[in-house]
Amino acid sequence: MRYHRGIRYPQGGGLTAERQQFREGLRLKAAERFAQGEAGSVIAKALRVSVRSVQRWRQTWEEGGPRALRSQGPASLPRLSEKQFAQLEAESAKGPAAHGREDQRWTPARVKTVIGRRFHLTHTIQGVRKLLVRNGWSCQVPARSARERYDDAVAGWVKAVWPCAEDSRRPVEPGSSSRTKPDSP
User: Fold this and answer.
1) Where do the segments described as Disordered lie (predicted)?
2) Contact indicator for 15, 23 with CB cutoff of 8 Å
């Protein structure tokens, strides 16, 4: 598995503060409607959310009242600071070979080892995967390869067939896209 730096979400992933407030507002509006005895499907349609969300909110509201529907903040705090993550990125830029690996793949297990050695922090492999995704990294290699792949046949096709396919493309010329009505001068 190879990880690559991709698009970064605001604040390292998840919802922005504005979006969190908006979602909390929806839940509190739903709470007012729960108190009035409205049906979940009516509330869902009015607030433009799923019926399942309204059902979850109603259960939470019944157990803890409107306060239970308030935002709890981010699900978890990152264990690495932004400065530490920047240092981790610098270490990863050196490549796995600089960290004693023979091939050039960064896996969550290898990143976990670097974090442990560099920052003396313990992460689970799943936690490292989430940390990487939250900071805009993504997996660049499929989790599994094709069952039947004939590399020799693929290489032969690339050498013999692909050049012919490239040459057979028609040149781009001005004209009509209609088959029945030719281009008029």
Assistant:
1) 166-185
2) yes
Residues 116-145 have pLDDT tens digits of 898 888 888 888 888 888 888 877 766 666
End-to-end CA distance of the chain: 57
Q: Structural domain boundaries of the chain?
A: 14-69, 77-139
CB 20 within 8 A of CB 71: yes
Helical packing angle, 40-47 and 51-64, nearest 10°: 110
Query: What region does 37 belong to: left with phi over 0, alpha with psi -120 to 50, or beta?
Result: left
Instruction: Give tens-digit pLDDT for 158-170.
Output: 888 887 776 656 6
CA dihedral 23, 29, 33, 36 (to 10 degrees): 150
Which H/E stretch holds residue 5?
Answer: strand 3-5
pTM greater than 0.85 = no
